[in-house]
Amino acid sequence: MRIYLLFNTLALTGIIHFASSFSLPPNFIPRQQSMPPLRASSSPSNDYDVLIIGSGIGGLCAAAMCTLYGYSTALFESHSAAGGAAHGFTVRAKDVGDFHFDTGPSFFSGLNPDLQAKASNPLRTVLDALGERVECFKYDSFGLIFPEGHFVHTTEFGRGGGVLEKVSGDSAVEQWAELMKRMEPLENAVAAMPTAALRFDVGAALTVGQFLPNFATTNPLENLKLTKPFSNIVDGAVTDELTKNWIDLLCFCLSGLPASGTITAEMGLMMGEFYAPGAVMDCPRGGAKAIVNALARGVEKNGGQIFLKSHVDKIVMEDGRATGIKLKGGAKVHAKKAVISNLSVWDLFNSGIVDCTAFPEDFVKERKATPVGKSFMHLHIGFEMTRQELEQMQAHYMYIDDWSRGVDAEDNAVLLSIPSVHDDSLAPPGHAVLHIYTPATEDYSRWQNLDRKSEEYQKLKEERSQYLWHVLEKIIPDIRSRTRVVRVGTPITHQRFLNRHRGSYGPAIIAGEGSFPFPRTPINGLLVCGDSCFPGIGVPAVAGSGILAANSVSLDSVMAQLTLLERLKR
Q1: For strand 73-76 and strand 47-53, is the pairing parallel, antiparallel, or unpaired?
Q2: How much is the pTM?
Q3: Which one of 4, 297, 319, 398 is separated from 35 by 20 to 30 angstroms, measured CA to CA?
Q4: How far apart are alpha carbons 23 and 17 in whole angstroms?
Q5: pLDDT number for residue 106
Q6: How do residues 319-356 score in pLDDT, each as one tens digit?
């Protein structure tokens, strides 16, 4: 029993890594000049070993791993570009040129191919397994705009001379040191198990068993803390208000919940790596789309196929087993081993893509009752700014207006990304791009009955974006006069372009009260990946979910998985 609990706890921790500490939310802007169609005009074969629905990072990672295991694999995406929330888009401004925008994740760590990989980083694991490099710019700071003042965040945040000492004094520095000390054994537990080793069948005896000696020096009781709310760890070490507020904001940016709702595992390696001496963050050249392109290349070079503009109407189920899919237009494709869904839990069980009567009634009821996280407001802006001016800026800023309202309050916390600080390729000379948004605090209810073509919708869009302009002007006071291109994203935009239920960021599952389900379902051969399943929300988590889904297709992948594990050790 002890080994079972240890395995399940470490399975959770091993796949949640700070590959994208702040998983910036999806924004579903039309994909003008996005990633070129991969297989949009070709037709799929009649059957494959594995079919994958949805090309978010979870779906792409699942497809990549399946191809590495030798499965014939096809991925089907409704839209014209792969990547889901990370697809990116381009807007051409007359007489100026092209502006390339990120649509979701833009805050990464651990991806730089010139730096040593950590086995617990799931996205890097997949990229390395594929032999795909994502060129990155390294940087080590970002801006903080708090009620207490304007600061530059570095790894010295909680040390002497850092932000905490400046605001709260020596006591806060001592508390921070105690918090980091308490995180050390948790970080070690997470790092002990490579993401790629995990699976949930008897094959784990071979793939996971070889790493169990790594836990000889760990305390199982400490490990069990990883599934509890991170606030349990924080409250035992910290009383300083700014420290607690900052931890809440970090947790919220990662999981969509404050520390009281975020599992400790999600913060385990993040805190250790984020504040390690010399720690750096990565800005992918070309934006997050470069990661999507690398994953897609890897899928295709290993024999997989990606079909864009290929909407799946139905998952075909026969005698309790998923046997294939039916595409819009009526074409059917057979799955010899599995169908993997990268849909949200609500879109899987509410859209009609599956026959819910084929599942146990309690299972469907529980899945449909998954708490829904809120949505976003976004501004994507192409603007004039010289290279000299950009060099005075940070690539990211975190803003909060009033700590007392809570990090999850509407029109309070704002995140800003200016990738042009590092990457000149995203905008014409003398120009830059930015993405500013409210992180999962926009309530869908005010939008749900609006027609996106109506005047009422346009007015609300203008009204609800003003807070973002207000915050942006605190950082770039004359931004309105500099602006050449503007795109506004709303919950309706999210819902429309990612088929995302209520435009949600993802499930609002509170640590200690609920847990994310594993990839298997009561239907044989139907697996799930993405942010509605274990381990949860965020780029590192969804990449891990894709690995787990691939590892759950069939026991016959064990030998290929062992070969891959040996290769990754080199």
Answers
A1: parallel
A2: 0.92
A3: 398
A4: 11
A5: 85
A6: 999 999 999 999 999 999 999 999 999 999 999 999 99
Q: Which residues contact 395 (CB under 8 A, 6 or more apart)?
A: 139, 142, 283, 417, 418, 419, 421, 422
Q: Which of 423, 489, 440 is nearest to 289 (CA)?
A: 423
Write the pLDDT tens digit of every residue in 373-397.
Answer: 999 999 999 999 999 999 999 999 9
Show the CA angle centred on residue 314, arms to residues 310 and 317, nearest 5°.
135
Q: Angle at CA 23, nearest 5°, toward 20 and 28?
A: 130
By CB neighbour count within 10 A (0-12 exposed, 13-18 middle, 19+ buried), where does 30 fall?
middle
- C-beta of residue 40 within 8 angstroms of C-beta of residue 31: no
Cα–Cα distance, 288 to 281 (Å, whole number): 13
pLDDT band at residue 473, thresholds of 50, 70 and 90?
very high
Omega prior to 535 cis, within 30 of 0:
yes
The span from the CA of 20 to the CA of 287, in Å, is: 13
The three-point CA angle 136-437-429 to 5° equals: 50
Question: Residue 319's CB: how many other CB atoms inside 10 A?
Answer: 7
Q: Which of 111-120, 209-218, 333-342 has the highest mean pLDDT?
A: 333-342
At 242, which helix (H) or strand (E)? helix 241-255
- Token pair of 29 as six digits: 């802007």
Residue 316 phi, psi dihedral angles, 5° rounding: -80, 130
Rounded distance, CA 28 to CA 553, Å? 30
CA 43 to chain centre: 30
* Both structure tokens of 249: 């904001």
Give the C-alpha distances (Å, rounded to integers) separating 412 from 82, 443, 490, 509. Answer: 32, 13, 17, 22
Phi, then psi, of 137 in degrees rounded to 5:
-95, 135
Percent of the chain clearing pLDDT 90 (strictly above) = 76
Q: Would you state the structure tokens that stand for residue 39, as one six-digit string? A: 């297989």
User: Residue 569 has what pLDDT?
Assistant: 81
Residue 68's pLDDT is 97
Name which of 266, 241, 275, 80 is nearest 164 in CA terms: 241
Give the pLDDT of residue 23: 37
Question: Taking CA 277 as the corner, what is the angle to CA 272 and CA 280, rounded to the nearest 5 degrees?
Answer: 80
Contact criterion met (CB below 8 Å) for 227 and 511: yes
Q: Rounded distance, CA 101 to CA 108, Å?
A: 16
Distance CA 30, CA 32 (A): 6
Rounded Cα distance, 197 and 564, in Å: 9
CA distance 565 to 504: 35
SS3 string of 25-91?
CCCCCCCCCCCCCCCCCCCCCCEEEEEEECCCHHHHHHHHHHHHCCCCEEEECCCCCCCHHHCCEEE
Rounded Cα distance between 569 and 301, Å, is 22
CB-based contacts of 305, cutoff 8 Å, min separation 6:
39, 42, 44, 73, 74, 75, 299
Residue 223 has pLDDT above 90, yes or no: no
CB count, 10 Å around CB of 344? 27
Beta carbons of 384 and 482 less than 8 angstroms apart: yes
CA angle 461, 467, 470 (to 5 degrees): 130
